[in-house]
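Customer escalation, tier 2.

The customer says the design service returned an amino acid string that "doesn't look like it belongs to this structure." They asked us to rerun it and document both sides in this ticket. The original structure tokens are below, unchanged.
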């Protein structure tokens, strides 16, 4: 079954998005490539960390997307070298991990005891590399290699992926061991394999891989502590399946989307959409970060908690969750073309995810919190640090495209994209100050005139004032996917001018002990006060959210002064440094 969104090749990305991509491409990308850590664990087994093997696949994914935009020859050579070195470490039986022989998933296919499994967060007890994360490494090997192979077709790579998957099937296929008995959180880490296995099916068209992916879903349904598919179909909470482990739960929803893509089965899509909606309504902050918290009914601070347990001082946002949430949004957009998915991906990218990234280009935060006095950036090689560039590259690769024959402009951020012949050839150039403001000029630098429907979306919390082409006002219609569309004969030199503005909104969040907090956004930008110490006052505790909102006075630089106070609310991202942090949520009545 074909998906309907087809991105057009992004050729340049500038503005804030370009700056942030540059930080990763010029700094972190090489920092990790030159560290040795990507390949050492494979070449000298055992590696030094239980999920060390994930980093190469994640890096290959992000680096391939970067290469596809930049054509950087040094990067091409570096990727090629890593792929060759990785393939050279594959065992004759297909094994391609970082574990010692007595700890591989073949040697320990199911958890023998809880002690034998490394917790998601605590890999410090490194007496010995215990089991639990070996299939995880294979999930990322498959993902990274298959992404790379799309750009650089090579049957040897496909063969290596087949042999990895065949070994997994040998151990976890029909009538074999139960994959959900492997690793942490009731198996939800191990079952993230689904997406990668379906990617292999899509590449090879081999039915056995699709069968294996569906077998994994059946195993999940047979495990009362998982049952993610049926719980999502029944509109249930994301707090319990797999102990509500945020990153992995969303990665399993990605698996359901790929299964829908291949089988056309609507229940897979419905499960993913219901999961998305549940997370959006109950677990996403105004910054777009998905919050989690340790409670007495879940395992650790990376697990979703009920709304009643929200407290801005006690929740955290894992960087991997930002990435997986953005992936979920992008893949649902790919299928449905609904603008709300890109709205959400954009909010997360421009607030929470960029907030995790340090301005030196190397350091990242594993966790952030909506209210914290300073951010804990580090240059360590950790899961989140390797996940977040993937989301940045995926968004950048999906800015302009086509949907149902329309030219679909999914961003107002400054960029350019190649136009296909259908749209007149040449290129499309978006000029704007986004995300500082909402207005944009879209220039058609085409080779020939073509008649087609052009559609664009406005960012979250944004209203359209006027729309014009070459100075002539146009009345667009808003289609049922949330895009503004109109048809005309497009010619070289045409300029589509979008005059729009951000709206100020308040967001009320209830939580622990029946308390309420308010947060604010201006367009897609969350607002926060820049603080350097944890505040002890609650200046708005006696006011309603609406009353606080009415006190906000705009200043020229995009900030808002709260009338009668010296509190300045600015775009969230500006508060995120090593010396300062955001105060995003405020107690209210
Ligand atoms: Zn992480």
């Amino acid at each position: 079954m074909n998906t309907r969104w087809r991105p057009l090749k992004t050729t340049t990305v500038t503005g804030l998005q370009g700056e942030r991509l540059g930080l990763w491409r010029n700094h972190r990308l090489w920092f990790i490539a030159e560290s040795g850590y990507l390949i050492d664990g494979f070449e000298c087994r055992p590696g030094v960390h239980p999920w060390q093997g994930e980093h190469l696949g994640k890096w290959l994914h992000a680096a391939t997307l970067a290469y596809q935009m930049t054509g950087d020859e040094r990067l091409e050579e570096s990727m090629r070298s890593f792929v060759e070195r990785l393939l050279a470490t594959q065992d004759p039986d297909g094994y391609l991990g970082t574990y010692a022989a007595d700890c591989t998933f073949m040697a320990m296919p199911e958890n023998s005891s809880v002690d034998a499994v490394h917790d998601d967060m605590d890999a410090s007890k490194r007496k010995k590399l215990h089991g639990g994360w070996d299939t995880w490494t294979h999930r990322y090997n498959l993902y990274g290699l298959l992404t790379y192979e799309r750009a650089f077709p090579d049957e040897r790579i496909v063969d290596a992926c087949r042999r990895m998957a065949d070994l997994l099937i040998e151990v976890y296929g029909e009538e074999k061991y139960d994959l959900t008995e492997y690793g942490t959180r009731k198996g939800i880490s191990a079952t993230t394999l689904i997406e990668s296995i379906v990617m292999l099916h899509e590449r090879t068209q081999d039915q056995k891989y699709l069968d294996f992916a569906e077998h994994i879903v059946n195993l999940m349904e047979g495990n009362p502590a998982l049952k993610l598919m049926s719980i999502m179909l029944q509109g249930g909470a994301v707090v319990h399946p797999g102990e509500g482990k945020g990153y992995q739960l969303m990665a399993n929803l990605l698996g359901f989307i790929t299964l829908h893509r291949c089988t056309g089965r609507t229940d897979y899509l419905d499960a993913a959409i219901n999961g998305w909606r549940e997370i959006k309504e109950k677990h996403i902050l105004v910054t777009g970060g998905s919050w989690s918290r340790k409670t007495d009914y879940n395992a650790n601070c990376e697990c979703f908690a009920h709304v009643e347990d929200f407290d801005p001082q006690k929740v955290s946002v894992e960087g991997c969750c930002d990435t997986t949430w953005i992936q979920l949004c992008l893949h649902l957009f790919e299928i449905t073309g609904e603008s709300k998915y890109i709205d959400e991906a954009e909010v997360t990218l421009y607030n929470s995810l960029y907030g995790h990234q340090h301005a030196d280009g190397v350091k990242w935060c594993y966790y952030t919190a909506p209210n914290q006095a300073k951010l804990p950036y580090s240059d360590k090689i950790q899961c989140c640090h390797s996940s977040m560039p993937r989301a940045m590259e995926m968004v950048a690769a999906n800015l302009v495209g086509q949907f149902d024959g329309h030219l679909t402009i999914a961003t107002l951020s400054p960029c350019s994209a190649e136009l296909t012949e259908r749209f007149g050839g040449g290129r499309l150039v978006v000029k704007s100050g986004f995300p500082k403001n909402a207005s944009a000029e879209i220039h058609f630098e085409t080779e020939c005139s073509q008649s087609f429907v052009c559609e664009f979306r406005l960012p979250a919390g944004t209203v359209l004032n006027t729309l014009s082409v070459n100075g002539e006002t146009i009345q667009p219609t808003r289609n049922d996917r949330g895009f503004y569309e109109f048809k005309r004969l497009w010619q070289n030199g045409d300029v589509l001018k979008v005059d729009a503005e951000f709206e100020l909104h308040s967001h009320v969040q209830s939580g622990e002990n029946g308390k309420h907090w308010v947060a604010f956004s201006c367009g897609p930008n969350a607002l926060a006060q820049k603080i350097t110490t944890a505040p002890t006052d609650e200046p708005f505790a006696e006011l309603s959210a609406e009353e606080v909102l009415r006190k906000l006075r705009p200043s020229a630089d995009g900030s808002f002064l709260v009338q009668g106070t010296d509190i300045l609310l600015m775009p969230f991202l500006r508060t995120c440094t090593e010396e300062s942090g955001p105060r995003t949520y405020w107690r209210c009545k």
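Tier 2 assessment: The sequence is consistent with the input. Residues 318-320, 383-384, 387 surround zinc ion (CB under 6 Å). The mean pLDDT is 96. Sent an explanation to the customer and offered a walkthrough call.
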